[in-house]
Amino acid sequence: MGTVATGSRIGVLGGPGSGKSTQCANIAKHFGYTHLSTGDLLRAEVKSGSENATMIQNMMKEGEIVPSEVMIKVLQKAIQDSKNDKFVIDGFPRSEENRAAFEAVTKIEPAFVTFFDCPEQEMERRILSRNQGREDDNIETIRKRFKVFLESSLPVVEYYDSKGKVRKVDAAKPVEEAFRYNEMHIIVLPYLFSMLFVI
Length: 199
Description:
Layout: E1 8-14, H1 20-31, E2 34-37, H2 38-48, H3 53-61, H4 68-81, E3 87-90, H5 96-106, E4 112-117, H6 120-130, H7 139-162, E5 166-170, H8 175-185, E6 193-198
Parallel strand pairs: 1-4, 1-6, 2-3, 3-6, 4-5
């Protein structure tokens, strides 16, 4: 992780289907960040046939959180392989244990976070309608992922909120409107930020 630039870091948090990946893509496109999707990185790890491939595949199928040690190693490799020094990490940290482990290893903590608040019914509708052919985009796994988010990921939001770092966005609104909020309140000085965390 030594190749990561110093400076302020911000986070973007929200449940599955809240629009995080879409916003990450917009941030990457408009402000020169490298978009690192943990889901895509893990699916690539499964295809590679690595020693953790079967374990990762089974956990993703069940909507479970991949162990921090494994995820951090995958992220470190992706960051080191990139030529960029600004990253938006999509899908991490997903638990308090993820957060604590990442901060302990990297000494990185976001300056503030934005929480994409979206009703579960709307998130479910979006996931089922995106039709990307992903193994984990089925109703059974989706509802397991919602349960994991409420039990494991939401406490991360609450942790940062307790430190006065959370800014909430109504993610049920159109993508363009949510992005305009990001542009105004988060990326107003984009070059100050070297890493974005997106749960």
